[in-house]
Amino acid sequence: MKDLVKLLAASGKLKFTDIKNKLKIDDPTKLSFHLRILKEHFLIEQDSDKIYMLSSNGKNLLENLKKIDGGGLRKCAARPKNLLEGLVCQVNVCSITVFTYPP
After folding, report:
1. Which residues are CB-neighbours of 66 under 8 A, at least 6 positions away?
2. Which of 6, 52, 76, 78 is the least buried, fewest Cβ under 10 Å from its Cβ?
3. Does residue 21 lie in a domain region?
């Protein structure tokens, strides 16, 4: 999912097929699953033409992760220590985990 978020951040708006091709994903059901998870967490949105883009929440999250981690995406601690750490999301190839505070 990290690559998907980075792709949308760099490209702006993309159709499903463009995302699939650029990320070289063979199984469209896996991409659909990850897009649905990101939409459910309000990190991406889809317009009336079915084009995907980062939502304002997704853009804010990406910017805050860059500030926190000096430009990269990092994994969350198993148990957040404070509110700021509790708001950081773990974005990787397999899953997205959103920690809320208090744990």
Report:
1. 72
2. 78
3. yes
Running DSSP on this structure, what letter comes out for residue 75? P
pLDDT in tens, 20-43: 999 999 999 999 999 999 998 889
Task: Kindly give, in sequence order, each residue whose CB lies less than 8 Å from that of residue 4, ignoring residues fewer than 6 positions away.
Answer: 19, 23, 31, 34, 35, 38
Give the pair of three-digit tokens for residue 89: 């999301």
Alpha-carbon span 86 to 90, nearest angstrom: 11
> What are the two backbone dihedrals, phi and then psi, of residue 93, each rounded to the nearest 5 degrees?
-65, -35
Task: Write the CATH number for 8.
Answer: 1.10.10.10
What residue numbers bound the domain in which 66 lies? 2-71
Question: Could you give the CA distance from residue 95 to residue 41 in angstroms, rounded to a whole number?
Answer: 12
How many distinct structural domains can be found in the chain?
1
Identity of residue 80? P
pTM, two decimal places: 0.64
